[in-house]
Amino acid sequence: MSEKEHKEENISEEEVIKDQVEDILDEAIEKADTQEDTTQNEEVSEKETLKNELEKEKDKFLRLFAEFENYKRRTSKERIELFKTASQDVIVAMLPVLDDFDRALNEINKAKDKELLKGVELINNKFRETLRAKGLEQMEVKEGDTFDSEIHEAITQIPAPKDKLKGKIVDVVEKGYKLGDRIIRYPKVVTGK
What we know:
Layout: H1 3-86, H2 88-111, H3 114-133, E1 136-138, E2 153-158, E3 169-174, E4 177-179, E5 182-185, E6 188-192
Helix pairs in contact: 2-3
């Protein structure tokens, strides 16, 4: 073999080896690119999964927070309502005492004992102010007012003493009271027919 042939053979072997190395490198680069794409896809997929989970947890949190706020508002409203009406039973039990004070004042007024009247009036005023501070309010009903079955209780009906009192209130037998916005005792009235 001549030197020239030997060189050509070495060159061709080198080219073959070079081609093989290039092929191996190309394959390695492709494999690396594919792995990089897969890794990126996995990272993107993992990021999306984490984002979705975060969104779900945020949604749960917001719903739970809204439910809690509604619960606080509802219980606060119930508590306020309870405080308003908690003393209702006691105040309703005191209404006959108020009626007795009115009767006592009328009788003492007839006896014309000014000192006794003054003392009973002081006690009566103090008692009424204490109840008013707790939310008790007397309903204003007088002779000649129009009868309303929603806020009055008719105990009887009599012939009207005057034509203008027909269908109206002729007399108030028992005063009515409100506790806050609620009527706790309806005024008992006599109506004219």
